[in-house]
Amino acid sequence: MSDKSTHALAVPFLGVLASLQLIDPTVANTALVKAGAALQMQGSTLALAASISTLAQAATVLLMGFLGDRLGRRQVLMASLLLSIAGDGIALAAPNAGLFLVGRALVGIGVGAVLALTFASVRFVSKPEQLGKALGVWNLLIIAGFIGGSLLGGVLADSSWRLALGLVPVIALLCLPLIPVLLPEMPANHELRADWPGLISIALAMVLFLSGVSHAVSGFSAPLFWMPTLGGVLLFALHLWIERRRQEPIFPVALYTRGLFAAAIVSGIAWNFAQAVVQLQTSNFWQLVQRFSTSQVALAQLPLLICFAGGGLVAGRLMAPGRRTTQLMAGGIVALVLGLVLLAGIRPSSAYITFVPGLVLAGTGLAFLSVPQSALFVQEAPARYFGSVTAFRTTTGQLGFALGFAASGALVNGFGFASLRDRVLKLGTSPSQWPEVEAKVRAALSSGVLSHPKGEPSPAIDLLTASYASGLAGTMLVVALLVALLGAISLLLLVIGRQQGSSQV
């Protein structure tokens, strides 16, 4: 294969590799219900099985970015794929919950590193003037791979959860021998030294914060929420204090004060936050209220994902001739906010077609935010700290996604249960009986009563579905306001960053 053709295939190949980070949790979560039953996982163990991959990824992604800089990105990428293959192998063959958890943790480390390393590699296989276009293609292949992998994974999960967990390692095994063929050797700096105090402090901060946020649905006063969340914030403050005094930090703390870098962080949190809300809550609505099957939900998400993929390609091409970051991000914010507002208008009886305009706008808005945000990370990353800085993009994505899942769950509960209370009282229930009714309803919801596919809907089910829809509408409006606020902040930071001039910290 010629060098020219190899170069042409490098970016799409990196996108396919990066899609594993999205395919894996989707397939794993689909398979988790059956895996939990087979391995007798319940309560906290089942919750840990759902989150351990993300927590392991959060704890190690900056380290893997550093190793890419230190040892060579291609070598670490191959090692990360092997680690994910081994992890999924352990998980799918696990005879008990303990080994399943070990396997899922290894997968999280591996696929998280693959995402960070492929993102960092795009710059080195692309000409500087074509970076925006390359990021658009990379984004397109991520989504295309995610769509195909998720649909196939859903089919496999219906047959066997062990078979479903074999999908990612098979794709990884097929890709592994292509890495030395399609990807060139990339610069390595063997003189770099690991900043262990910085790496450990930010890893613990991320794990604590994400663990706490995942319990937001329990209520903001619940110790399981506020104690680890606060601990994570305090540890991150300690991390910054440590890094200011290190001669060789993970990357310079002064980078946080750069307007363009700060804009990349805020906008990254914003679009990942919105994506989590839209994907989670529309999926829940279709399953719980309208009784869609798993495969039907996957197909229903296609307008969002196709526009995300296609919009990314358009955004990349628009960025190629010059610096249009501000215009693209502004357009993305407007489209995303409008999409969220449209989705707030859905009702229990809404036909699927009424979802499509909101999904199209949301998908396009996500793309027009994500591509320039990615370019900002690449632009602002000093050469000496390139791997660590670009890996931090994955960290912002994790923060945004976690906050989106937690906030949307809490908001749906808040708005929905307020509506439900009014509806129950109108039926003649006394206010003194409400606490008992609420407890029963929460228990019913947690057991998935709304998704029961058989039997005629009862008045109780009708009440629950109407309340859920009301909660979803309120949630989408609040999220639209939050995204608009975060978007305005990121645009202001862009202006500040332009005034600061080009960086290399």
Please provide a brief summary of the model.
The chain is mainly alpha-helical and 505 residues long.
Notes on the protein architecture:
The protein is mainly α and 505 residues long. It is built from 18 helices and no strands. α1 packs antiparallel against α4. The relative contact order is 0.12. Mean pLDDT is 84; it is low at 444-457.
Our Rg estimate from Cα atoms comes to 23 Å
Largest sheet: none
CATH architecture of the largest domain: Up-down Bundle
What is the CATH class name of the largest domain?
A: Mainly Alpha
Q: What structural class do you assign from the helix and strand content?
A: mainly alpha
Q: Could you give the distance between the termini?
A: 39 Å
With helices defined by DSSP (H or I, 4 residues minimum), what is the helix count? 18
Give the topology string: H per helix, E per strand.
HHHHHHHHHHHHHHHHHH
Q: In the CATH hierarchy, what is the superfamily of the largest domain?
A: MFS general substrate transporter like domains
Q: Kindly give the count of domains.
A: 2
Overall spatial form: globular
| Share of residues in helices | over 70%
Residue ranges: pLDDT <50 for 5 or more in a row? 444-457
Can you count the beta strands? 0
* Mean pLDDT across residues: 84
CATH topology annotation of the largest domain: Growth Hormone, Chain: A
Sheet-strand content, in percent, reads under 5%
What's the SSE blueprint?
Layout: H1 3-38, H2 43-71, H3 73-93, H4 97-124, H5 131-159, H6 161-164, H7 167-175, H8 179-182, H9 196-213, H10 223-244, H11 259-289, H12 294-300, H13 302-319, H14 325-343, H15 356-380, H16 386-426, H17 434-446, H18 459-500
Helix pairs in contact: 1-2, 1-4, 1-5, 1-7, 2-3, 2-4, 2-9, 2-16, 3-4, 3-7, 4-16, 5-12, 5-13, 5-15, 9-10, 11-15, 11-16, 11-18, 13-15, 14-15, 14-18, 15-16, 16-18
